[in-house]
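call fold(seq) -> tokens
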Amino acid sequence: MASGKYTKYKVLGVIGLLAVALLADRNMDIRNNPITIPMLILFWLGVASLVLPEFFKKYRIAILSVYALVIISYYFFFFNMTPDYPENHRLNFVNLMLIPIPVFAAFWVYEQWRWLQTLQADKAKAELALLKSQVNPHFFFNTLNNLYGLVVEKSSHAPEVVLKLSDMMRYTIYEGKEDLVNLTNEINYLETYIELHKIRYHNKVDIQFMHDVGKDIQLAPLLFIILLENAFKHGAERLTENAYIHLDLKTRDNQIFFTIKNNIEPNDSHQGAGIGLDNLKKRLAHIYPNRHELIIEKTDSTYTAHLNIDVRS
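ret:
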């Protein structure tokens, strides 16, 4: 309610400035009228504060300083020049009043451009946060179900599963929200995931993970896990024997080269489909535009994914 009253009084005040300027100009002799132009300047400043309050508030010192100089100059010439000077050169003061307007208009356009850039950046961050939140949820539910079975059976593997699952959840929750993580931490995360699956599966799966990476390489978290998860989901979980998953991760300078290959059931059309791979493609497009390459190779019995990323900042 107070805000509405304040706005109403402010509008009335601005209109009052215009009324004073018009009455002074109409009823006073121009030679003796030092009021009109200053009142008009104050009127338009009041209009600006009403129409663009945030912009006016941010640049009020610069705006008021410029027009204060205009008013001071006007009064100086009015009282110190010949009697007919204000009448003859009034248009010059009006032009002087208009000169700063394009400059402040340019500032306003710049502010709008910055606002749009910030809006787009915030939107991208929100989309990335949503995509991260969709990474790997059903793996944790499946592992908890397996853990329940191990506890019921009083298996000696139950404490190990709890510890490894805790490590993975901690990494996903805390490291997963970071913009960048060390590549060695990502490798540890993948190895923990693999060890959990080895405990879960009764069938033997040939899993080989070769890695040779630089110590200081950083990248966005949780990119490789989606490809590894697909390899288990559409390969090892469906095959009854001779299942394998081979991973190779290496770096050269600021380039990361990741390859994962697994065997599948003949003519399996499901591998590669689903929300996980779509999320990975969207995240890569957001984080590494024109700096990544994801290549999928599929035969009747194998599925291979190559992910190459240029992590130079």
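DSSP finds eleven helices and seven strands in the chain.
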